[in-house]
Amino acid sequence: MGWDVLAIVLGAVASLLGGGVLCSNYIQKFITRVLNHPRKVTESYATKLSSLTKQLDASSKQIDRVLFEIATVAENRQQTVEKLETELKVLEDQEQHMKFRIEALENTPLEAAAHFAALIADGEKRSKKRDYVLFGAGVLASTLVSLISLIIEYFS
């Protein structure tokens, strides 16, 4: 039994030494080079934390820009709505004024409207006569000027 225990212990020690040699960095590098398998590079906790903090800061700035743009658009829309409300109020006032004037004209007696039309018609008749007189005077004046210029040209 002594030899059996010694063989087991020596086998275990040889196994530990063999495993330690196979697990060393030199052997791992050699095996990865032979198998062409790159070794994973692990970042330190501080590097990961720094990278995540930079990403968070950049994202925060981008969100701030988007929120500012949303606020600007909302403010512009609010101003546009207020302007449209003001214009609508002015148009409503104009509509009420026009309705009042239409109602006043609808309530005007027909006799008054007929009298007003007669007054305008007399003015139109006088206007026609005046237009004919002015036209005739213009024709006469241009004829006289033409005759005078022919006479002057003939005697000169």
Mean pLDDT: 80
What proportion of the residues is helical, as a percent range? over 70%
- How large, in whole angstroms, is the Cα Rg? 55 Å
Question: What class, by secondary structure content?
Answer: mainly alpha
Number of helices: 4
Query: What is the overall silhouette?
Result: elongated
* C-alpha end-to-end distance: 167 Å
Domain count: the total is 3
Oligomer: single chain
Low-confidence stretches: none
- Order of SSEs: HHHH
What amount of the residues lies in strands? under 5%
Largest sheet: none
Annotation, overall tally of beta strands: 0
How would you describe this structure to a colleague?
It contains 4 helices and no strands. It has helices at 2-22, 25-35, 45-106, 110-155. With 156 residues, it is mostly helical. The model has no long low-confidence stretch (mean pLDDT 80). The protein folds into 3 domains: 1-41, no CATH class; 43-107; 110-156.
Brief write-up:
Helices cover 90% and strands 0% of the residues. With 156 residues, it is an all-alpha fold.
Features:
single chain; 156 residues; mainly alpha; 3 domains; 4 helices
Q: What is the topology?
A:
Blueprint: H1 2-22, H2 25-35, H3 45-106, H4 110-155
